[in-house]
Amino acid sequence: MSDSPLLKTDLPGIPLKRGKVRDVYDLGEQLLLVSSDRISAFDWVLPTGIPDKGRVLTQVSNFWFDKLEVANHLLETDVTKMDLPEAVDLDPLVGRAVLVRKTKVVPIECVVRGYLAGSGWKEYQADGTVCGVTLPAGLKESDRLPEPIFTPATKAEAGDHDENISFEQMGQQIGTELAEELRRRSLDIYRQGVEHAKSVGILLADTKFEFGQVEGELILIDEVMTPDSSRFWPAAEYEPGHSQQSYDKQFVRDWLSASDWDKDSTPPELPNEVVVRTREKYIEACELITGAAFPWK
Ligand SMILES: Nc1ncnc2c1ncn2[C@@H]1O[C@H](COP(=O)(O)OP(=O)(O)O)[C@@H](O)[C@H]1O
Ligand SMILES: [Mg+2]
């Protein structure tokens, strides 16, 4: 295994924007997206990384981009074919960097939920709706919804929470036609994802897509149905009525919850045991979804 996590990259001479997890390099008409091993929990990026987590996210996204028949941003996944400047060390980028079409990002998080969890469950308890969608009475936490629902959110500026909005508000923000198209596509991709995930024992409880526009085309961008952008639940342990164990971050959340960290200041370093077990879960999810042995074990 790679012994130490890749917490950040600094490619010489290329303009860089850092997201929570990805280092995004601007190459003009293209972007180089590098998934680091940073991990966030309770809305904080932790000081400790999970070795190879970035590779897991990249491999899972690449799998879906290949499997789904939808227009997407992916141009190249082989770092030796990316024509990067000579001075760039390719080794740390292998398996985690992708070259993509640079788009104008639609400023909406396209969330689809098939089960009642997280902010959806909170909103439902308060008023029986999720993002303005009225749901049947009497649902329990983690219950499966009668059918998947589209529950958009605004893309928050760095450090802020995303805010759930109604479909009407989304329409006012970006236009009704585009909103309808995004809802249709998001529900369709989610359904395809659910079907495949189910066949390998994972419940894809919900997920978030991003779309971008380029040369008049609307394409799927960012990451797709990864453990970071979705709730993956082990199907064998599914039981409504309480929150579910997540596939990947459960050890991290449990350990942080049991620690004396107040969730309102710089988080503590994770112990090695939590790192090792978390890494194993990410890799397990990756192998299940992609059906291939993880190459960097
Ligand atoms: N094809 C693309 N065109 C433009 N921006 C993109 C594309 N794919 C992903 N992005 C953006 O790159 C960033 C990815 O970094 P990430 O660490 O996931 O950020 P965040 O903290 O916003 O989740 C996101 O802001 C995402 O919107
Ligand atoms: Mg992101």
What does this protein structure show overall?
This protein is α+β, with helices and mostly antiparallel strands. It folds into two domains: 1-102, 2-Layer Sandwich (Phosphorylase Kinase, domain 1), CATH 3.30.200; 105-237, D-amino Acid Aminotransferase, Chain A, domain 1 (2-Layer Sandwich). It has helices at 53-67, 118-127, 167-174, 176-199, 250-258, 272-290; strands at residues 16-18, 22-26, 30-35, 40-41, 44-45, 74-76, 97-101, 104-105, 108-115, 129-130, 133-134, 144-150, 153-154, 163-164, 202-214, 217-221, 230-234. Helix 1 (53-67) packs parallel to helix 6. The longest helix is centred in the middle third of the chain and has 24 residues, at 176-199. Bound molecules: adenosine-5'-diphosphate and magnesium ion (MG). Adenosine-5'-diphosphate is lined by residues 19-22, 24, 31, 33, 73, 100-103, 105, 210, 212, 221-222. Magnesium ion is lined by residues 19, 21, 222.
Features:
single chain; 297 residues; alpha+beta; Phosphorylase Kinase, domain 1; D-amino Acid Aminotransferase, Chain A, domain 1; 2 domains; eight-stranded antiparallel sheet; five-stranded antiparallel sheet; 6 helices; 17 strands; 29% helix; binds adenosine-5'-diphosphate; binds magnesium ion
Brief digest:
The chain is an alpha+beta fold. The protein is built from six helices and 17 strands.
